[in-house]
């Protein structure tokens, strides 16, 4: 670790890059990740695409060590995520994660959902945490719903709360695992546009998605994963618009035209 990183406090919001090398992960006999090499430059957006079961969620979960890799290395900013001595609590404070199923606390208000972690983990006062939460809720257009419970919101609104909640921790990296897959079609756009704004603001983002339009417009790079290996990667325009590998071509054909010709 450099001197600079040692001085970087938990509220440092410089975007953090991710470097993954030789990542292997098995569940029992099943090898799910078979040697993944990929990276996300600080401030860039990488979309991870691939068929169901190809290992996308497992890869994402290894980055913040919700899964323990079997081999390989992952660095997140200045953190060596796979080092035995890594301070996981400190590292995870810098990483926001948004899931398909929102994972909001149903018994807490929107505002309480957004203040509980800054209060408990960052030890912020109620006033400071609420001010920051209301600021983030305002940015996703939901400040006026701060007193509601999650069940009183649409899916799209709940996912926007989940994004605001993650941002209250001032992360340097955001991980998204199919954030729009559980949404009604008419609310997908409102979540994608929040993500696009976040990308434009310079957040480093690793996004598992089937939204090819979003990937094409927002991603700096697209990585296609198949059966635990990176089969193709490159600029979004190239991987989605003109893939060179037969497996990428086949996958995109099925995603873009599910009923076939
Ligand atoms: N905790 C676990 N225990 C055992 N097997 C698991 C576990 N998590 C994932 N797997 C298996 O690993 C493989 C990859 O799963 P993963 O969830 O990473 O795929 P995915 O690409 O995210 O798929 P999807 O698009 O359906 O979300 C699957 O075969 C899955 O059944
Ligand atoms: Mg998944």
TrEMBL record:
InterPro entries per UniProt: AAA+_ATPase, ABC_ATPase_HisP-typ, ABC_transporter-like_ATP-bd, ABC_transporter-like_CS, MetN_ABC_transporter-like, P-loop_NTPase
Protein localization: Cell membrane
SMART domains named in the record: AAA
Major enzyme class: translocase
DNA-binding is among the record's keywords: no
GO molecular function, a single term: ATP hydrolysis activity
Gene3D superfamilies the UniProt entry points to: P-loop containing nucleotide triphosphate hydrolases
CDD domains given in the database record: ABC_HisP_GlnQ
Domain ABC transporter: 18-252
Keywords per UniProt: Amino-acid transport, ATP-binding, Cell membrane, Membrane, Nucleotide-binding, Transport
One Pfam family in the UniProt entry: ABC_tran
Entry's Gene Ontology cellular component terms: plasma membrane
Membrane-topology annotation of the record: Peripheral membrane protein
Documented EC number(s): 7.4.2.1
Principal subcellular localisation of the protein: membrane
Catalytic reactions on record: a polar amino acid(out) + ATP + H2O = a polar amino acid(in) + ADP + phosphate + H(+)
Family, as annotated: Belongs to the ABC transporter superfamily.
Name this protein carries in UniProt: ABC-type polar-amino-acid transporter
Organism: Nesterenkonia sphaerica
